[in-house]
């Protein structure tokens, strides 16, 4: 092998920093782009001082004692290139070979039969193919693991057999991130002899230098960014270890796959502009990724705030690169998009100054069989974009045309912008969808009116924290939420029950670039997006004073959902919430607010769709046949989606809610809830056959500190475990008995009421023993339980104030009730007579209809609903002006009179 690199002479970044020409002002080391553009090898000066490295287009060299003898072993043009690449890669050695795959081939030849290799599961297809070959022909075992999770590598590390670990980060085409530094460290600790190899093609040495993070060998397909013009094939290998360099040099010389002089020349020329090309390309890539993300496509790009592993990538790399991929949800749609572009060339490969588009599953990764692709989570509809240096506005324009022509996006007249059309398996026609909802109105034009109930815990509060089952039921006191369109590009909220709070924001000024929307069909992850929360706190919520923590929290929950659901959809509207529930009294006012806000937003954004109605032409099918006063008219899938988002809002409001409140609010009825742990599985079970019961809820109006009360019981359990455990066991028995009785369809009503009455008294006694009652609650208990009224009462929720629940038998006389209410009010308590176990989430039917002659039957014609927008004053009135001013006592009747309500 010729003297390609002299490690002794070659220090990292060895282009000498010029000597200081002033003792005061020292010279700084050159930056990457300077190093890149300056091809200078102090040990290989050109005899004529040529500015560009000459091409030594020769196979042999004359003489016997010269530096070079035969070009397979060494060539001056190649030496220049290798020196230059070593310099910009923080490497002591570099080798130029005929392609990226040739580079990998050279590296894999270090392996011996019996060796084991650990490799990523989202590798370049050609890499997979070559690994498969050596597995079959060389007797090397290859383990494919998910390198995004370093822990998944550990079981495969064998201290004596693991000879090589092959990593890519970000991967191609899913841009998965592997923590190269952490993995290298873990491997070195467990299998010190293993060689860590990184394919750095996606990043190039400009953006990532894995040798600095513990890798032993790095290779690049220089066909890509290093050359930048798709006019040559080449591979570059770099390393610092002399022993490895020696082996690689030996293999390259033996195999004869070193890069030809003319390609070395071309590559050297290309590398000079690496930094400028990359800067431009990744800036444009970021624009394209943001654009697609804002339309609601699932986009894979490390520059997006929600990209998994983004922080790791930021730690180990200096940029996000210029390759991204996105999913359309439909393979045919993707094919249409790819086929519809003009500026984006349909081509495999990347790294060129020209932009390319491809579908990995049918192109670059077609060599991986479909089953393996599926197993490795490579979506068949995935489109990969490799962004070039063209003007970004032209690139976006061309892409937008292709998306429109393919039917992936369509113009929304209301938003004056293109919005995504959801494929949902079959392509959805926006026009048809709009006809199905609210007559000829679009989702944004409809005033969506929703409502959700509060809850009462009947049995098991406090004990539930310690693993005991609690029974909760919906109360017939509801929160109402109404969206009303605006036409000034503003978003506003009006929370009547939080000090009549009103605020509005400019939609364009929301921190969109810091918040990534969740693509449709994707569930909100378990963790909240803290970056989004931070961005909202610092930005739009900053306008709200610290003295309004409740309003701020509710606005945060609302804006979080709006921005997370939105993306390309940025409808302008007002959301007003009003409640007939006392707020902060432990009756689930927050969960009913969360449910209303989530439902209204999901409807408005089209994330949930009401089922289409039968055609009205035939009167017998033109009716909405809904039994149970509209109950079960909302499909379970909608309820589930709403519940998930209501839980997200509850998390924002309360940190770590159990989920029981929002579940009752969505599903209504009654449910038994058991928390995980203590040898039990967490579970929420609907109590079927629950009969609606009358209860009196009395708000003591004594504020309570739930956290303190819960902690108090916890402490008591530590201090007196026997006493508390016995109490908990008794409460579990109460819950079990109540559950059985409530679900027992055989039991007559009188017996049920007397069982419940006894259980209520008993449960309250235990709560007193747990120290969570309050004198005001005892007063309510005494008043309702007096000889005259004889009712059973217990505290509900955390206690220490808040509310008490009193079971009201069916035959309890109206006059007695009226006296009791007066007495309670006389003590400055707020009593509410309500029933429990009624409907959950309700949506005022958006379908045009009018009341039919037959009771409970509604005809799918007429003009009673959908509620009309102000713009449509011809036939109807907007709901909002009425909703804003109705006295709270009239709200339920007014809402019911508006039309058909559909319930879960
Ligand atoms: N590694 C990656 C990540 C690649 O994308 C490619 C080619 O697309 C290669 C290696 C192989 O390089 P070459 O085509 O130069 O052999």
UniProtKB/TrEMBL annotation:
Pathway: Isoprenoid biosynthesis; isopentenyl diphosphate biosynthesis via mevalonate pathway; isopentenyl diphosphate from (R)-mevalonate: step 1/3; Amino-acid biosynthesis; L-methionine biosynthesis via de novo pathway; L-homocysteine from L-cystathionine: step 1/1. It catalyses: L,L-cystathionine + H2O = L-homocysteine + pyruvate + NH4(+); an S-substituted L-cysteine + H2O = a thiol + pyruvate + NH4(+); (R)-mevalonate + ATP = (R)-5-phosphomevalonate + ADP + H(+). InterPro entries: Cys/Met-Metab_PyrdxlP-dep_enz, Cys_b_lyase_euk, Cys_met_metab_PP, GHMP_kinase_C_dom, GHMP_kinase_C_sf, GHMP_kinase_N_dom, GHMP_knse_ATP-bd_CS, Mev_gal_kin. Its EC number is 2.7.1.36, 4.4.1.13. Pfam families: Cys_Met_Meta_PP (PF01053), GHMP_kinases_C (PF08544), GHMP_kinases_N (PF00288). It comes from Dendrothele bispora (strain CBS 962.96). It is found in: Cytoplasm. This is Cystathionine beta-lyase. Keywords: Amino-acid biosynthesis, ATP-binding, Cytoplasm, Kinase, Lipid biosynthesis, Lipid metabolism, Lyase, Magnesium, Metal-binding, Methionine biosynthesis, Nucleotide-binding, Pyridoxal phosphate, Steroid biosynthesis, Steroid metabolism, Sterol biosynthesis, Sterol metabolism, Transferase. PROSITE patterns: CYS_MET_METAB_PP, GHMP_KINASES_ATP. The keyword Acetylation does not apply.
């Amino acid at each position: 092998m010729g003297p390609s690199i002299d490690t002794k002479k070659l220090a990292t970044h060895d282009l000498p920093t010029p000597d200081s020409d002033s003792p005061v002002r020292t010279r700084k080391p050159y930056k990457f782009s300077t190093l890149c553009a300056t091809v200078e090898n102090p040990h290989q000066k050109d005899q004529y001082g040529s500015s560009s490295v000459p091409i030594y287009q020769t196979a042999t060299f004359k003489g016997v004692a010269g530096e070079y003898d035969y070009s397979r072993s060494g060539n001056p043009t190649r030496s220049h290139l290798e020196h230059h690449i070593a310099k910009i890669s923080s490497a002591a050695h570099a080798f130029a070979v005929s392609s990226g795959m040739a580079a990998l081939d050279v590296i894999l030849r270090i392996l011996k039969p019996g060796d084991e290799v650990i490799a990523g599961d989202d590798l370049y297809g050609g890499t997979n193919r070559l690994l498969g070959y050596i597995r079959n022909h060389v007797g090397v075992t290859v383990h494919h693991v998910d390198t995004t999770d370093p822990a998944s590598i550990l079981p495969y590390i064998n201290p004596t057999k693991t000879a090589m670990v092959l990593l890519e980060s970000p991967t191609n085409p899913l841009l998965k991130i592997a923590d190269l530094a952490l993995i290298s460290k873990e491997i070195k600790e467990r299998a010190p002899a293993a060689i860590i190899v990184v394919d750095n093609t996606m990043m190039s040495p400009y953006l990532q230098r894995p040798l600095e993070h513990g890798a032993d060998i790095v290779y690049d397909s220089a066909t890509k960014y290093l050359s930048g013009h798709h006019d040559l094939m080449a591979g570059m290998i770099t390393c610092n270890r002399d022993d490895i360099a020696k082996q690689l040099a030996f293999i390259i010389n033996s195999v004869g796959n070193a890069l030809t002089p003319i390609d070395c020349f071309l590559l050297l020329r290309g590398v000079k502009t690496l930094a400028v090309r990359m800067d431009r390309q990744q800036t444009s890539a970021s624009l394209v990724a943001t654009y697609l993300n804002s339309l609601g496509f699932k986009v894979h790009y490390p520059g997006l705030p929600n990209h998994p592993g983004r922080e790791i990538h930021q730690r180990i790399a200096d940029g996000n690169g210029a390759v991204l991929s996105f999913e359309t949800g439909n393979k045919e749609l993707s094919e249409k998009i790819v086929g519809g572009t003009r500026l984006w060339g349909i081509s495999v490969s990347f790294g060129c100054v020209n932009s390319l588009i491809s579908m990995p599953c049918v192109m670059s990764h077609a060599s991986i069989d479909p089953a393996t692709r599926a197993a490795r989570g490579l979506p068949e509809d995935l489109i990969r974009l490799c962004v070039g240096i063209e003007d970004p506005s032209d690139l976006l324009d061309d892409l937008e045309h292709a998306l429109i022509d393919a039917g992936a996006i369509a113009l929304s007249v209301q938003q004056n912008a293109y919005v995504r059309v959801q494929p949902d398996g079959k392509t959805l026609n926006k026009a048809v969808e709009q006809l199905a909802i609210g007559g000829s109105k679009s989702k944004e034009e409809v005033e969506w009116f929703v409502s959700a109930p509060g809850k009462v815990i009947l049995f098991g509060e406090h004990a539930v924290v310690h693993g005991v089952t609690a029974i909760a039921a919906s109360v017939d006191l509801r929160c109402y939420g109404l969206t009303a369109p605006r036409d000034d590009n503003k978003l506003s909220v009006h929370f009547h029950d939080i000090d009549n709070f009103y605020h509005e924001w400019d939609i364009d000024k929301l921190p969109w670039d810091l918040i990534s929307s969740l693509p449709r069909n994707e569930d909100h992850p378990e963790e909240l997006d803290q970056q989004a929360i931070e961005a909202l706190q610092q930005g739009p919520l900053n306008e709200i004073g610290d003295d309004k923590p409740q309003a701020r929290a509710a606005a945060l929950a609302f804006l979080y959902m709006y921005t997370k659901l939105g993306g390309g959809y940025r409808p302008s509207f007002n959301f007003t919430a009003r409640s007939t529930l006392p707020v902060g009294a432990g009756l689930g006012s927050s969960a009913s607010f969360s449910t209303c806000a989530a439902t209204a937003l999901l409807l408005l954004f089209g994330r949930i769709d009401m089922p289409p109605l039968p055609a009205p032409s035939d009167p017998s099918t033109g009716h909405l046949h809904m039994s149970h006063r509209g109950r079960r008219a909302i499909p379970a899938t909608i309820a589930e989606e709403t519940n998930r988002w209501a839980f997200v809002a509850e998390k924002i409001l309360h940190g770590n809610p159990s989920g029981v409140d929002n579940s009752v609010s969505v599903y209504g009825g009654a449910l038994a809830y058991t928390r995980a742990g203590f040898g039990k599985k967490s579970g929420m079970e609907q109590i079927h056959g629950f009969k609606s019961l009358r209860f009196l809820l009395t708000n003591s109006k004594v504020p309570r500190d739930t956290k303190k009360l819960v902690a108090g019981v916890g402490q008591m359990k530590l201090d007196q475990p026997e006493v508390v455990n016995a109490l908990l066991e008794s409460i579990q028995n109460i819950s079990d008995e109540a559950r059985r009785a409530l679900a027992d369809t055989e039991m007559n009503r009188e017996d049920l009421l007397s069982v419940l009455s006894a259980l209520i008294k008993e449960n309250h006694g235990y709560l007193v023993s747990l120290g969570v009652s309050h004198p005001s609650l005892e007063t309510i208990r005494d008043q309702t339980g007096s000889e005259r009224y004889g009712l059973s009462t217990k505290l509900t929720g955390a206690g220490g104030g808040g509310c008490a629940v009193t079971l009201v038998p069916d035959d309890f006389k109206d006059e007695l009730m009226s006296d009791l209410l007066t007495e309670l009010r006389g003590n400055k308590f707020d009593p509410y007579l309500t029933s429990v176990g009624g409907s959950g989430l309700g949506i005022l039917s958006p379908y045009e209809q009018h009341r039919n002659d037959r009771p409970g039957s509604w005809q799918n014609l007429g003009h009673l609903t959908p509620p009309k927008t102000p713009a449509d004053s011809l036939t109807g009135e907007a709901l909002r002006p009425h909703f804003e001013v109705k006295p709270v006592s009239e709200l339920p009747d007014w809402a019911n009179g508006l039309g058909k309500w559909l319930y879960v």
